[in-house]
Amino acid sequence: QVQLVESGGGLVQPGGSLRLSCAASGSSFGIGTMGWYRQAPGNQRELVATISSVGSTNYADSVKGRFTISRDSAKNTVDLQMNSLKPEDTAVYFCNVRKFAADFWGQGTQVTVSS
What we know:
The protein has strands spanning 4-7, 10-12, 18-24, 31-39, 46-51, 57-59, 67-72, 77-82, 91-99, 102-105, 109-113.
C-alpha cells in the first residue's frame, strides 16, 4: 500500500502561482510514474501532468508552458509548480502514484483561482 499526502492548495488570484506537493509513504521500490490530475465540479477527472521514473514528462495541452512537474525519487515526492493560473484551473487536484501496476490516489487538494 501507498499513502499519499498532498499539500499546497488554496485560493489565488488570476495570474498568480501555487506549488502543490505530494509525499508518498513507504518504500520507493516499484514506484513508476507519478502525476497530478484534477477534477472540476461536474467534470470528469483529467490528467494535468505526469513524470516517469526516468524523468520524462507529459502535460495536458491546457497547462503546457504554465505548469511544471518534478519529482524527488529518493524522497518519494512529486511537486507541481503552477504559474499564470487561470480561473479555469479551479479544481480539486489529486496526486497519483503507480506502484507495481497499481494506482494510488491522494485525498485531493482544492485550488481556486478567483479575483
